[in-house]
Amino acid sequence: MSEANVAVVKSIYDCFDVGDINGLLGLFSEGIIWDHRGIGAPDSPKNKLFRGKNGVKEFFDIIGDNQEILEHDVTDFIASGDKVVAVGFIRARVKKTGNEVASDWVQIWTLRDGLVCAWKVFADFTADAIAFQQ
């Protein structure tokens, strides 16, 4: 099951890279928990817990409205049971301020029956918050 789960997660990144948000939403369970909370990021509009597919769509709408993704690389996948850990890097520009943010990240994906039911990211949330400040 681990390799099948990695394939699902890779498909999600493929969808993200081409802007196919509806395609990636099709790989999520209805009750998905999308956790983009981190310490030190009160100024980031995406620093919160999103619930359900509509919540995840809201998350990607926030990104599209507020940031331009300049670089997004996924370098490693580690699978164990129902979890896939992805390791990568992102660089983005906040549209309102023009400030850039860059961070290595780790994302933990939990899958059930071939669909993502939970996601959590670990990144430099403070750098993200600073980029949103005027």
Short overview:
With 134 residues, the protein is of the alpha+beta class. It is built from four helices and six strands.
3D structure, described in words:
The chain has 134 residues and is of the alpha+beta class. The protein has one domain: Roll (Nuclear Transport Factor 2, Chain: A). The chain has helices at residues 2-17, 21-25, 52-66, 125-132; strands at 28-35, 49-51, 67-80, 83-94, 100-112, 115-122. Strands 2-1-6-5-4-3 form a six-stranded mixed β-sheet.
Compile the SSE list and pairings:
Blueprint: H1 2-17, H2 21-25, E1 28-35, E2 49-51, H3 52-66, E3 67-80, E4 83-94, E5 100-112, E6 115-122, H4 125-132
Parallel strand pairs: 1-6
Antiparallel strand pairs: 1-2, 3-4, 4-5, 5-6
